[in-house]
Amino acid sequence: MKRMLGFIAAMFIFLGFAFFHESTNGPVTSKKPTVGLLQLMNQPALAQIQSGIYTGLKDEGFHNGKNINIDYQNAQGNQSNLKTMSEKFANENADLAIGITTPSAISLADVMNKTPLVMGAVTDPQGAGLVKNLKKPEKNITGVSDQAPLGEQLDLIQRLMPNMKTLGIIYTSSDNSAVTQYKKFKQLCEERHIKLKVYSISNSNDLNQVSQTMMSSVDAVYVPTDNTIAGAMSTLIKNSDAAKVPVFPAVDSMVKDGGVATYSVNQYKLGVMTGKMAGKLLKGQKISKTPVEFIRYGDLTINLPQAKKMGVHIPDSLIQQAQSKGELIK
Predict the structure, then answer these.
(1) CA distance linking residue 296 with residue 246, whole number of Å
(2) pLDDT reported for residue 17
(3) What does DSSP assign to residue 136?
(4) Using one digit for the tens of pLDDT, what is the confidence trace for 157-186?
(5) Which of 36, 46, 271, 294 is the most buried (most CB within 10 A)?
């Protein structure tokens, strides 16, 4: 009987210690952090960024389904979906959220003012009202910018189109990133005394008619970082092919879809940078200690078959550069 009482007493002591240990130090198995990943739409460049984010998180030791849960949501280009999905992340108390593109980041910022937010591919964080101080973000937002190397891109167009008289630019008027790049590109053209004709669309339904009109008035076309046009490149290229007018996009995936060449931010690398930044924040790094990051120089991508089709001569030096430090599409 004494042994039984001793055993019961020992059990109470053990259970009491275990309860005390858990209440003071937390549960033995901690909850997996949840990361809300919000993507604006389906298009190749954004898919590369998304893939890079997963890699960047892995590089920081976070593996989806093992020690982290990634709630991936795709708005399919619908603004109301962005709002609903952002609210979903807020309601489920996500530990961190990532917005791929400016509209996604803005939507998250509207409903999550305390949760750490990471911008993935936001061209102008200050102009979008997301961050005031790029070096020391003051709120809950930081991230990685996809600001294109516009000077390099215009240099390339001038080099490949030495007899160009008129350059066209087409962009979506509701896309903040595209509008920002259009304004900066216009200024560059003015400084270099390049005649620039401007065309804008409201949505992808406008692209066919507007681009047909444009092709009859320009010698070449520049397309900024523009999600709507990137998702409908086949329409633009159909009309450029018919008119034999080469297209020089800001993004490498758009070159693969029929553009001639560009110096562009590597979208996958940008995603990796975004994922690594998110991983560091999950480990406890403060937003104020996490400056907004930029990729300063672009990689050269050349579409040789498209250049030949458009009658654009590509110098051997550029071909070698694309082979060694970029991508050459044969």
Answers:
(1) 26
(2) 41
(3) S
(4) 999 999 999 999 999 999 988 999 999 999
(5) 271
Question: Is residue 248 assigned to a domain?
Answer: yes
Cα–Cα distance list, 291 to 53, 125, 132, 200, 204 (Å): 18, 12, 11, 33, 35
Give me the pLDDT at residue 177, please.
87
State whether 156 and 260 are in the same domain.
Answer: yes
Q: What is the CA radius of gyration of the chain?
A: 25
Same domain, yes or no: 54 and 140:
yes
Domain that holds residue 125: 34-147+267-294
* 89 and 205 share one domain: no
Q: What is the DSSP letter of 64?
A: B
Same domain, 141 and 220: no
Same domain, 288 and 302: no
Number of domains comprising the chain: 2
- List residues bridging with 327 in a β-sheet: 301
Q: What is the DSSP string of 277-306?
A: HHHHHHTT--GGGS--EE--SPEEEEEHHH
Instruction: Tell me the per-residue pLDDT of 202-235, one tens digit each, with 9 for 90 and over.
Output: 999 999 999 999 999 999 999 999 999 999 999 9
pTM reported for the whole predicted model = 0.79
Q: How many Å from the N-terminal Cα to the C-terminal Cα in the chain?
A: 88
Residues 6+ apart with CB under 8 A from 105: 99, 117, 119, 120, 122, 128, 130, 141, 143
Angstrom CA distances, 248 to 31, 91, 253, stand at 48, 43, 11
Integer angstrom CA distances of residue 253 from 40, 146, 281: 17, 14, 29
Query: Cα(88)–Cα(227) distance, rounded to whole angstroms?
Result: 24
List pLDDT tens digits, range 241-290. Answer: 999 999 999 999 999 999 999 999 999 999 999 999 999 999 999 999 99
